[in-house]
C-alpha cells in the first residue's frame, strides 16, 4: 500500500550536500515505500566522503524489481573524491532534466544516469580516463555517450618528461 505523499520523509529536499563524512557508507537508503521521497531533489553534492559506496542504496524489494529509478527534477550532480563510490542509485537511473555533472576521484563509479534524448546534453566535467571506462546501455535506452557533453581537457594527467622522479 502506498504512503500518502505528505507523510514521506525528505519530500521537500531540494539540495543534498555532504562534506567530509569519512565513515559514511550510504547516504539515504530507499525502499519501495519511498517513491515520492526525492521527487523535488535538484542537486546532489558529496565531497570528501571516502567510504561512500552508494548514495541511495535500494531495499531488497527494489533491487529485485530491476526498475529504472526516476529523479525527475535532478539538475546537478557534484561528486568529488569518493574513491569507493560504485553507484548513485541502483543500476539504472533516469534524470531527464540533468544539466551538469562534475566528478573527480570517483574511480569506482562506472555508470551515469540515463537522460532524455530530446533534451540539451548534460555537461560532464570529469577525468578523461574515467570517462573512457564508463559502461553504457545504448542510445535506445537514453544511455549513450553521444547524449552527453564531456569536458576533461583541464584535468588530464600531466605528461611528465622521461627520467623524472615522479614517473
Automatic annotation (TrEMBL):
Annotated ranges, domain Disease resistance protein At4g27190-like leucine-rich repeats: 4-112
Annotated protein name in UniProt: Disease resistance protein At4g27190-like leucine-rich repeats domain-containing protein
SUPFAM superfamilies: L domain-like (SSF52058)
Organism: Triticum aestivum (Wheat)
Source organism, top-level taxon: Eukaryota
Amino acid at each position: 500500500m502506498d504512503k500518502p505523499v505528505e507523510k514521506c520523509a525528505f519530500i521537500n529536499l531540494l539540495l543534498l550536500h555532504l562534506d567530509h563524512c569519512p565513515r559514511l557508507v550510504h547516504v539515504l537508503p530507499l525502499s519501495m515505500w519511498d517513491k515520492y521521497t526525492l521527487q523535488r531533489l535538484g542537486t546532489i553534492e558529496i565531497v570528501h566522503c571516502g567510504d561512500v559506496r552508494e548514495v541511495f542504496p535500494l531495499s531488497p524489494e527494489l533491487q529485485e524489481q530491476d526498475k529504472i529509478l526516476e529523479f525527475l527534477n535532478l539538475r546537478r550532480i557534484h561528486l568529488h573524491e569518493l574513491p569507493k563510490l560504485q553507484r548513485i542509485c541502483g543500476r539504472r537511473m533516469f534524470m531527464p532534466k540533468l544539466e551538469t555533472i562534475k566528478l573527480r576521484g570517483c574511480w569506482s563509479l562506472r555508470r551515469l544516469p540515463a537522460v532524455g534524448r530530446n533534451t540539451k546534453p548534460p555537461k560532464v566535467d570529469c577525468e578523461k580516463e574515467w570517462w573512457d571506462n564508463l559502461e553504457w546501455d545504448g542510445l535506445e535506452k537514453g544511455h549513450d555517450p553521444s547524449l552527453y557533453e564531456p569536458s576533461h581537457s583541464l584535468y588530464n594527467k600531466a605528461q611528465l618528461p622521461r627520467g623524472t622522479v615522479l614517473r
